[in-house]
Amino acid sequence: MKQEAQIIETDVLVVGGGSAALWAAIRAKDFCPRVTLADKGMVASSGVSPLIHIVNAPLNEEEQRLSLQEIVERSTYLCDQKQVSILMRELGDRFRDMEKMGVPFERDAAGKLVLEKRLGQKNHYCAFVNGREMSQVMRRHALDKGVQLVERVMVVDLLTSDGRHPTRGRVTGALGLNTVTGDLFVFRAKAVILGTGLIGSKYYVSYTNGLTGDGQAMAFRAGADVVGHEYGQMSMFNIWERKFNTGGQAEYMRAGARILNSMGENIAEKYSPDKKASSFDRNTLSVMAAKEVYEGRGPIRFDLTHLNDGDMAQLRRVLPSAMKAFEEEGIDLQRKPVECTPYHTYFHAAGVKVGLNSEASLTGLYAAGSTTGGTGTTASGGLSQAHCFVSGYRAGEAAGRLAMEVPQGDVREEQVKELSRETFSPLERVKGPRPEDIYTAINRVSLPLGMSFFKHEKRMKTTLQEIARVRDEELPRIKADDVHGLVKANEARNFVPLTEIYYCCSLERKESRCGQYREDYPYRDDVEWLKWIVARREEKGMALRYEPVPLDSYPFRPAQRLKIPVPIPVSPPAG
């Protein structure tokens, strides 16, 4: 490892390698000559974007109105309707731009987009695209425009004009760590865009193992507002036969899957008037499955044994990665039911609070795609990608314009030294907990169903006590044997505060809504809780504040403000 940092001067630094980051870099290059895209993996080969197969399709004006209304209702009126409206209006332009680049959205013989309505969506249609091909096309386009790619470099912290965290100044660059050599990078930038993707927990079963909330955590450390973290854990139903993690439940349900508890009961028949699993969205289905396990009727199995060869061919077409995973594990979905485990994961909705042009609360900082929080636009995979396209484009334009108006910001040498010491200190320790020990300690008190799906004030306070202990006693002693371990140690440094924010906000929101279920508050409270919880790091620690959802300025609002009982009541297990 080099003792002296490699300095990169740029107008706009984009952090990440997926569709939001690529769009941000491509658009920023229209306004300024120097745009750098840094990713801890290989640009266009890491994260979720290469794994997608659908994206919400452009809509006409009437469809936009209906789709907006549906998203608002699905978010239970918590989404930012102005941001969703922008998404609807501008998505068609991004589709046309991407097709000019050469992105191969699937079309029929007549040249029309192949569209399909998604499970649980009344007014949305999705187009088909190979995520790997899309990502590689965008990568080539970025290179052709002159974007500088800096790969295998994990950006670990933001640099600020006053050299402080939290800052009272502006963001002026970032510090990076080469994930192969361990070399230090210092990026000097007029604007920084965070497009690092989702927040992921290290369950060692995840197919997106590199999504560790790097952008959200470094923004929080620098003092930026973050929002939506009580919904930062999404109910999932993805661990198959306790061996691997992959999605596809929506497609299996569309195909007619039966979902059975340990007694052989079809759980859809217990909760759905029409006796179909396809009556539920994935989040509700996950809660149903978790309820069965929580009340002692697990494990849960997907039964697709009645599907014919044509059904399976369709699944292989729309879920190529998932079906390949089953084949590699020797699992024949037509032969016997397969176990599927419900769990909570950091996924959607939590992230940096941004304005309509993807600007964060700190001057010079922007965020795009799933690094942002609170918009309600990441409720499904197809919609999430659409959000990446539109917000990435907007972030790139806003940052590019700012970079042409302001001088290069100061980088404080003392801050670089201080952050470097914190980044590399795990290599200097002879003994101490390893990154996996940190994850294990946190997961032990956050993954059980009574700590994740079904929360209670008493249990959450116990969880927060353990998180604080790990933060204060274990994390400062974390040890790494090599550069690979050093990267994992810095990922753990992100994981712990993000988990703490999640439980603090979950404890604060005294109701059950969307992915947040409170045993002690088993109702959605539109009287008191149509508001966002915003977290910010301050000198004395984390501060929370409320921001009422500005429904009076939005086109859609609830007819009445009521307390609405949750649709799936839960009976905690005895003891």
List descriptors:
single chain; 575 residues; alpha+beta; Flavocytochrome C3, Chain A, domain 1; five-stranded antiparallel beta sheet; 23 strands; globular
Contiguous helical run count: 15
CATH architecture tag of the domain at 233-346: Alpha-Beta Complex
- Termini separation comes to 54 Å
Strand content: 15-25%
Mean pLDDT: 89
**Poorly predicted spans:** 377-381
Q: What's the gyration radius in Å?
A: 23 Å
Q: Fraction of residues in helices?
A: 25-40%
Number of strands: 23
Secondary structure layout plus pairing:
Elements: E1 6-15, H1 19-28, E2 35-39, E3 54-56, H2 61-74, H3 81-101, E4 115-117, E5 125-128, H4 131-145, E6 148-151, E7 153-160, E8 171-178, E9 184-194, H5 214-222, E10 226-227, E11 233-240, E12 244-245, H6 249-254, E13 258-260, H7 267-271, H8 282-294, E14 301-303, H9 309-318, H10 320-328, E15 338-346, E16 351-352, E17 365-367, H11 381-403, H12 413-424, H13 435-446, E18 454-455, H14 457-474, H15 483-508, E19 517-518, E20 523-525, E21 531-538, E22 541-548, E23 563-565
Parallel strand pairs: 1-2, 1-9, 2-6, 9-17, 18-19
Antiparallel strand pairs: 3-5, 4-5, 7-8, 8-9, 10-16, 10-21, 11-12, 11-15, 13-14, 14-15, 20-23, 21-22
Structural description of this entry:
By secondary structure, the protein is an alpha+beta fold. It has a domain at 233-346: Succinate dehydrogenase/fumarate reductase flavoprotein, catalytic domain (Flavocytochrome C3, Chain A, domain 1), CATH 3.90.700.10. Helix content is 35%, strand content 20%. The strands form 6 sheets. Strands 1, 2, 6, 7, 8, 9 and 17 form a 7-stranded mixed beta sheet that branches. The longest helix is centred in the C-terminal third of the chain and has 26 residues, at 483-508. The protein is globular, with a radius of gyration of 23 Å. The termini are far apart.
